[in-house]
């Protein structure tokens, strides 16, 4: 620690915060946080993952960006989500997080469907839009007149079939899983 501090302060002219700084061995400590990453060791070697606090912060920010109160128009919300998620993925792209990204991606699709469902407001508008998206009139009527809340209704099979991933991506949704695969390949 002393030699590192001496090098950083004298040679590189950087200030080291001695209260926060410590030296650890990846082999001695099971997991530790470093710049939002968790470094550790398992049977196949050393791994780099996103720290749980960073995941929580990411999901919280996505939740505010896709809030039901905020998304009067879905296009600006989709653009803000795209900008934030792209920056986050570029920073954490080297970490192993395929399963977590897929979970958050599915959750985010559900949130976007919920926002669109809320935007449509009236049952007749919901029914008309579902029919326009290729859903038979009978099923569109049942889904549109559901008395359940926005979150529940946006997860109905009818609504999911109407708002497929491809349709949402074409309207401007940023698919996290696809973006992660392209970023992670570069590392």
Q: How would you describe the overall organization of this protein?
A:
Residues 56-130 form the Group II intron maturase-specific domain. It holds the Pfam family GIIM. This is Group II intron maturase-specific domain-containing protein. By secondary structure, the chain is mostly helical. Helices cover 59% and strands 9% of the residues. A hairpin with a 2-residue loop joins β2 and β3 (45-50). Strands 1-2-3 form a three-stranded antiparallel sheet. α3 packs parallel to α10 and α4 (98-120) packs antiparallel against α10 (176-185). It starts with a helix and ends with a helix. The chain has one domain. The longest helix has 23 residues, at 98-120. The protein has ten helices and three strands, in the order αβββααααααααα.
Structural class: mainly alpha
Number of strands: 3
Shape: elongated
Helix-strand string? HEEEHHHHHHHHH
Strand order of the largest sheet: 1-2-3
- Ends: how far apart? 29 Å
Relative helix content:
55-70%
Rg, alpha carbons: 22 Å
Instruction: Please give the domain count.
Output: 1
Number of helical stretches of at least 4 residues = 10
Unreliably modeled segments:
none
Q: In percent terms, what proportion of residues is strand?
A: 5-15%
Mean pLDDT: 87
- Main sheet: strands, sense, barrel: 3 strands, antiparallel
